[in-house]
């Protein structure tokens, strides 16, 4: 169960975490990307309890990241697939996996590799500038308020940028 809700925070990251910010959800999304699509497959692969999985899938369906389609009647059983919004999360999950490969590699080594099918090469995801293609580094990116920027819960950064101050550490 979630202990905290970010629903009232005026922050795109907080709103994203409201949908995917528990331990199991990124793993369910990963399994969908890898081709699992049925409830029992998730339970078997992840070792997640059925009631917890039901809650996570319901949140993903309600949030528009996953589509649920009946494949059997009596009893009704469903298959699951990523929606367009869910598919857009896959590169983010691949980038997080690349970070894990670098900083939290399992003892036996990198468990999964990704091949870019366009060029046929094994790839390591990086986050790049949408304008110049250069890899983004923390000290080379400056935040500024967007059109929806305002002072509200979860927006200390916007408040400090609006006042011309650097955020406090």
From TrEMBL:
Record-annotated HTH hxlR-type domain positions: 11-108
Phylogenetic placement of the source organism: Bacteria, Bacillati, Actinomycetota, Actinomycetes, Propionibacteriales
Protein's recorded name: HxlR family transcriptional regulator
Species whose genome carries this gene: Kribbella kalugense
Keywords attached to this entry: DNA-binding, Transcription, Transcription regulation
Taxonomic superkingdom: Bacteria
SUPFAM superfamilies per UniProt: Winged helix' DNA-binding domain
Molecular function per GO: DNA binding
PANTHER family linked to this entry: TRANSCRIPTIONAL REGULATOR, MARR FAMILY, TRANSCRIPTIONAL REGULATORY PROTEIN
One Pfam family cited in the UniProt record for this chain: HxlR
């Amino acid at each position: 169960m979630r202990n905290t809700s970010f629903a009232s925070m005026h922050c795109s990251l907080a709103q994203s975490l409201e949908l995917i910010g528990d331990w199991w959800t990124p793993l369910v999304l990963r399994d969908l990307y890898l081709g699992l699509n049925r409830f029992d497959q998730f339970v078997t692969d992840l070792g997640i309890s059925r009631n917890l999985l039901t809650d996570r899938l319901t949140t993903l369906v309600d949030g528009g990241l996953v589509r649920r389609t009946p494949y059997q009647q009596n009893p009704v059983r469903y298959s699951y697939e990523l929606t367009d919004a869910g598919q857009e999360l896959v590169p983010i999950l691949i980038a997080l996996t690349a970070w894990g490969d670098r900083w939290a590699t399992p003892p036996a080594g990198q468990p999964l590799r990704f091949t870019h099918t366009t060029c046929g090469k094994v790839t390591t995801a990086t986050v790049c500038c949408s304008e110049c293609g250069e890899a983004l580094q923390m000290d080379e990116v400056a935040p500024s308020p967007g059109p929806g920027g305002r002072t509200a819960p979860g927006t200390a950064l916007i408040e400090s940028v609006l006042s011309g101050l650097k955020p406090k550490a």
